[in-house]
Amino acid sequence: MTLICYREMALPLWKNLLQTTKERILQQRRLSLYNGAHGYEEELIKKKLQQFAGGSINLSKEDNGIGILTLNNPRLMNAFTGTMMVELQERITELENWKDGKGLIVYGAGNTFCSGSDLNAVKEISNSQDGMNMCMFMQNTLTRLMRLPLISVALVQGKAFGGGAELTTACDFRLMTPGSEIRFVHKHMGLVPGWGGAARLVRIVGSGAALQLLSGTARVDPEKALRLGFSEQTLSSSDETRALEEARAWLSQYTEGPVSVIRAMKKVVTAGRELPLEDALRTEKDIFGTVWGGPANLQALVRRPKHK
Ligand SMILES: CCC(=O)SCCNC(=O)CCNC(=O)[C@H](O)C(C)(C)COP(=O)(O)OP(=O)(O)OC[C@H]1O[C@@H](n2cnc3c(N)ncnc32)[C@H](O)[C@@H]1OP(=O)(O)O
């Protein structure tokens, strides 16, 4: 009798768990670009990447709704090892499931951003199948980062080279510290960007400037980045703790306010940025429906604020 009751209680729980897991996988597929239909073999490349260990990607979630994502491999100027690529994907999944999140700062440990992919690992996966799978793996992950309902900013200290430069373009904004440098060095490696960096760069600075930065492997210092509209601001300090504090303060101007509204704001902009106009308008209507008559809206109607 007890056994039957226990089974009856446990069954809906299992069903619920299965349903949630299924929904999560479906949501990840929707937010990603590539799947098996594109010849993408995720499990194969993950297994390969796990062989190149080192460093870590750390995430801390603060009470103010700001997440801090740290690239942590200072011995190699925060170059992306294989396990760091896999960990980045895991942290992005965590951020997708963080319902209280409003903002994200991406930065590198040890006063430098990231020197791109780990050249030791790259040498070992230089065949075409691994290269294509790694490219699709990183594009999927960085596209999901770009589509997070969080306002994201790359805090660039020291150097952001190659894949590190590409990563900065997956954030909504970039802040640079004095003496820092972003550089798409791919041409020197006989490559073009493959983590989605070229497509995103064109949308940020325009096709002419993007072509110059890529084909000239130009050094982008804070002044040049400001001129190009690539960076929002040059911070006053290049000290890690103080720069992080400044980045937090800068981001807070935009994350201040109710979670539901901030997240909805990022979603309407993502739709506007990515979809054809009519689809973007319909998406905006749907997202509007999630905040209209919601708690923040009703409270504002009671307060009747004057926007002086
Ligand atoms: C997606 C496509 C890509 O990302 S392709 C990779 C593009 N990136 C690169 O080619 C960066 C190559 N590295 C460099 O140009 C220099 O190391 C830079 C980043 C300018 C730093 O110079 P510097 O401050 O003098 O330090 P360093 O050269 O002594 O470097 C310290 C240790 O870090 C290592 N390191 C650096 N970058 C990488 C990398 N991408 N992959 C693997 N290791 C890297 C250096 O080799 C050096 O290590 P070690 O002390 O010699 O053992």
TrEMBL record:
| One Gene Ontology CC term in the entry | cytosol
Stated name of the protein: Ethylmalonyl-CoA decarboxylase
What's this chain's function? Answer: Decarboxylates ethylmalonyl-CoA, a potentially toxic metabolite, to form butyryl-CoA, suggesting it might be involved in metabolite proofreading. Acts preferentially on (S)-ethylmalonyl-CoA but also has some activity on the (R)-isomer. Also has methylmalonyl-CoA decarboxylase activity at lower level.
Family under the similarity heading: Belongs to the enoyl-CoA hydratase/isomerase family.
Record's keyword terms, sorted: Cytoplasm, Lyase
Catalysed reaction(s)? (S)-methylmalonyl-CoA + H(+) = propanoyl-CoA + CO2; (2R)-ethylmalonyl-CoA + H(+) = butanoyl-CoA + CO2; (2S)-ethylmalonyl-CoA + H(+) = butanoyl-CoA + CO2
Q: Where is it localised?
A: Cytoplasm, Cytosol
Database matches in SUPFAM superfamilies: ClpP/crotonase
Q: Which InterPro entries match?
A: ClpP/crotonase-like_dom_sf, Enoyl-CoA_hyd/isom_CS, Enoyl-CoA_hydra/iso
Q: Which residues cross the membrane?
A: none
Organism superkingdom:
Eukaryota
What EC designation does it have? 4.1.1.94
Q: Which GO terms describe its molecular function?
A: methyl/ethyl malonyl-CoA decarboxylase activity
Set out the biological process GO terms recorded for this chain's protein.
fatty acid beta-oxidation
Would the keyword Cell membrane be found if you checked this record's keyword annotation? Answer: no
Supply the Pfam families for this chain: ECH_1 (PF00378)
Query: Which gene is the coding source of this polypeptide chain?
Result: ECHDC1
